[in-house]
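USER: My hope is that you can spare some time for a protein that puzzles me. I am handing you a single protein, as its sequence and its fold in token form. Walk me, if you will, through where the backbone shape changes along the chain. The protein I mean follows directly.
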Amino acid sequence: MFQYFDKIVKGTEREDSLVIIQNMKELIGTSFSFLNYYKEIPVSYDAKLVNVDNEMAEFEVHEYQAKVITLEHKALIRSHEKFSFREDMFGEAFYVNVARKKVILCNFGYAKIRSDMRRFVRVVLDRPLEAEMIVAEDILKGGIKDISLGGASIDVMSKEQLPTGLDINMFLKLPDIANGSIHEVGVAATVIKVTGDEAPYNCFVEFYPEKHSQQQISYYINQRQVEIIKELKEQTL
């Protein structure tokens, strides 16, 4: 699972959880903003705090939020203006009932939400899409795992020709989800880093698209977003 936040410990983990619970006790009946991610798409709805007991907090949530909490086993919660602290929070899922739109969270902690720093919407792909990277006079093939207007992560079988900072030209094979046709999109990119101890390695690249390429990538991402949201809506847990 992607890590969307960094845990912040101010006292001990238990002390932090107790402080958060104590603040929540004063705000029963209040709505909080929840945040989860489903295949990199943010899922964020208001959740009403209905009860606090035994260091656990019960919330009424949106159906989609409950579905994603079931999958992620946790939720991020935005700080409330009436709290004695400004940090955002996370809570672990103790109980989730999607049909009743009910969630009970426990083991709270402070969080710095890293995904807030993203400039672009990112989408995860169910099946890797083909990418070709032009390196010197060679063509390296890879499989795109997730993509945004700003870049992508790509599975590659070799990393020797992909040092950090290398400028490359790429061709992305993006499908038109509506009709199944494939569009080959050329884009300039820079290798940010390559991770992994053995193949397939994970190559992160940053895009510098021309206007037409940017439009084509954006069109695909929008289609994929609709597909992911439809999948979440229809998912039964």
About this structure: The CA atoms of residues 176 and 219 lie 9 Å apart.
